[in-house]
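Backbone-to-sequence.
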């Protein structure tokens, strides 16, 4: 925790209470940061000012960009569409392998170069032809108030919303946050408490609770990503346990993405994930009954393709983020055997946005 002057952009924060010793406890996530006047939580963006907590990054962003939805990654949520993406700064985890560490670990407010109201974000995304808006790059649960207000503005214009998150959040804010999300990709970073404690400074159980809540108690479409790090979370026993848990607790139709690690941040001395490791993980997941298992951060057309779980026909063939063929019926079914494919699909396929990445500037 640290103490300094408030930045220009603050907004009243939800989910906190006063302790008997006069400190204020943030109840957003399981860290339960207890704050004296001026102190910030570990996430750095939630701060005590006077007799309340504020979000210091409301209306501020580290940048805006139009991405393919498959980059989130979401393969069963309006495939081929574009998504208006943005994040802020800070994070409530301490991952040693963070791929966006310059944003998520930032303690410098000058990283937040763009500013925009929720209404303005929705307007620009709509004008750009995007199907949805994604809260990403850093974890949106720490700027929940901003994300939720933006979700309301998006829904008012017919846009959907996406949360890319580690899912480290308490039950009450979890219910409020995901009630406003149309899709989520949750990072299930490993399947051992040891990994979560040593590599992320957090705990596994709250993440599993988030996954179960999203899938069973909301209308939010769910996909999962696990970054496989050589020697840390890529063993057969852990992959068996992880994929069996997903199949049992969430069901076979929740898509699971295995992504390749590249040396970065505090784990820059480890090798990249071999493609063979991703293929092995995918085969373990398929053998345990999961229907839709993908690989990421490597070139693997088979591992990017959506197959029918019944007749095994290739229905959506992808090369990286490019959709090569799309064979789903308007109802989202296999044209060969009639089996329904889990996901959110448009009645008319709008084409592939592809690998484009378009930086945007958004004014208040």
């Amino acid at each position: 925790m640290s103490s300094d002057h408030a930045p220009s952009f603050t907004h009243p924060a939800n989910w906190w209470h006063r302790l008997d010793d006069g400190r204020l406890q943030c109840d957003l996530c399981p860290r339960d940061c207890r704050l004296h006047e001026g102190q910030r939580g570990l996430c750095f963006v939630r701060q005590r000012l006077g007799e309340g907590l504020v979000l210091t990054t409301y209306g501020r962003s580290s940048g805006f960009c139009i991405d393919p939805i498959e980059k989130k990654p979401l393969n069963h949520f309006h495939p081929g569409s574009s998504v208006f993406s943005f994040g802020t700064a800070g994070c409530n985890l301490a991952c040693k392998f963070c791929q966006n560490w310059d944003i998520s670990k930032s303690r410098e407010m000058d990283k937040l170069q763009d500013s925009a109201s929720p209404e303005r974000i929705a307007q620009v995304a709509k004008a750009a032809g995007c199907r949805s808006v994604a809260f990403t790059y850093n974890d949106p649960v720490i700027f929940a108030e901003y994300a939720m207000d933006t979700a309301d503005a998006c829904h008012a214009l017919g846009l959907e919303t996406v949360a890319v998150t580690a899912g480290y959040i308490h039950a009450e804010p979890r219910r409020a946050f995901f009630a406003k999300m149309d899709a989520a990709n949750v990072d299930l970073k490993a399947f051992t408490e040891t990994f979560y404690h040593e590599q992320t400074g957090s705990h596994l159980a709250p993440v599993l609770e988030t996954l179960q809540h999203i899938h069973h108690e909301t209308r939010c479409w769910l996909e999962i990503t696990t970054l496989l790090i050589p020697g840390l979370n890529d063993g057969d026993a852990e992959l068996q346990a992880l994929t069996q848990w997903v199949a049992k607790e969430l069901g076979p139709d929740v898509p699971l993405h295995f992504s390749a690690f590249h040396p970065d941040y505090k784990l820059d001395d480890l090798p990249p994930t071999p493609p063979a490791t991703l293929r092995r993980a995918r085969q373990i997941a398929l053998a345990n009954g999961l229907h839709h298992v993908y690989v990421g951060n490597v070139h693997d057309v088979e591992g990017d393709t959506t197959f029918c779980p019944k007749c095994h026909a290739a229905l959506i063939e992808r090369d990286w983020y490019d959709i090569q063929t799309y064979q789903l019926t308007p109802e989202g079914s296999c044209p060969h055997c009639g089996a329904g494919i889990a996901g959110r699909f448009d009645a008319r396929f709008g084409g592939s946005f592809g690998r484009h990445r378009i930086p945007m500037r958004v004014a208040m």
